[in-house]
Each structure stands twice: as C-alpha cells, then as structure tokens.
Amino acid sequence: MRRRLDLSRPVPIELVEECLTVALQAPSGSNTQRWHWLVLTDPEIRRAIGELYRRSCTAYLESPGAAGKLFADDPVRGPVQERVGKSVAYLAERMGDVPVLVIPCLRVPGGLGGGNQAGTWGSLLPAAWSYMLAARARGLGTAWTTLHLRYEKEAAELLGLPDDVYQGALIPTAYSLGVGFNPAPREPLAKVMHRDRW
C-alpha cells in the first residue's frame, strides 16, 4: 500500500471523521476510551512529521534488521522482503506529501509504567486498526508505521502533546491508486497456529 497512496488527490476531512467515528466503536480496557486522534492536514506540519519519519527511516534502512535485508537467503521470502524494503524507502521520501497523517494517541495519567504494556496499548490499537479498515472500505489507503517514534519527543513538542499523551502509530491516509488487492504472502497457518500447547 505504501506505493499506492495517491499523493495528488485531497482527502475530505469529513471522510476521515467518518472513519474515526467507526474507530471509536472499538473496545478499550475497562471502557476507558482514553484514545485521542491527531489528524494532520496542514502542509507544514505534515512536512515536519514527514522529515522526522524520513530521518528515522534512513537509520532503519541501514540497520541489519531492515525489512529488505531479512530472509535474503530464502528464495521465496527474500524477494518479498526486498519489495517491502523498497516500499518503505519510497514512503519515507514522501510521508510529508501524504494528504492526511493520522496519529492515534493514548492518554495515560501517571505515565507509562512497567508491567502490562499489552493491556495499555490494547486500549488503542484495535481502534487504530478499525480506522484503517474503515478507510479501506471507503477507497482510502493506509499504512501502519511507527518509525517516527524514534523522535517521539520531538514529534510531541511539534504537535503540542500533553506529557501524559503517547503516540501509538503514524497512519498515512490517502486515496488508493487502484482497488485490486491480492492476499499478502504469509506463512501457512499450520506453521503458526498452536492448539492447547506450543
């Protein structure tokens, strides 16, 4: 999807709001609903966040764990990973040009502590994914990204976030170029499903 975002077509804010309204139906721990949504449409702010993302992505792409370098010896997975790596690089150079950037956030009074991080983030991530599915159903493309969080503090300052609000992702949102989507290559279910015991 990273290469299929239409950077030239504006996205109506009403359509984004419709998708976020769907997202608010997602579950949250103890029904706290501590989510908040930054919807970035201002070109200068998008460019600034895009630059943080690009800087972080440059370091990521040079690391041994970059998507394009994984499974290099596997004749099936290697080429897939190489395409993923190229799409990551493509988006990194264009993140600031995406018409809408959505940053799902979580307000955590007292700050993020140790312990059950899954429970904490489980109150935001289903809503963010629901946003992405709602966008897909309306002809919009999205991508789940987190690389800008390497510069989370800088992004928070730029966006004026309170100290107890944490960013969960950066979701570029644009109309998609084309509507035909094939299933992504994945490991077979039998390889990753465990019944009753590992």
Automatic annotation (TrEMBL):
<feature type="domain" description="Nitroreductase">
    <location>
        <begin position="8"/>
        <end position="169"/>
    </location>
</feature>
<keyword id="KW-0560">Oxidoreductase</keyword>
<dbReference type="InterPro" id="IPR029479">
    <property type="entry name" value="Nitroreductase"/>
</dbReference>
<dbReference type="InterPro" id="IPR000415">
    <property type="entry name" value="Nitroreductase-like"/>
</dbReference>
<comment type="similarity">
    <text>Belongs to the nitroreductase family.</text>
</comment>
<dbReference type="Pfam" id="PF00881">
    <property type="entry name" value="Nitroreductase"/>
</dbReference>
<protein>
    <submittedName>
        <fullName>Nitroreductase family protein</fullName>
    </submittedName>
</protein>
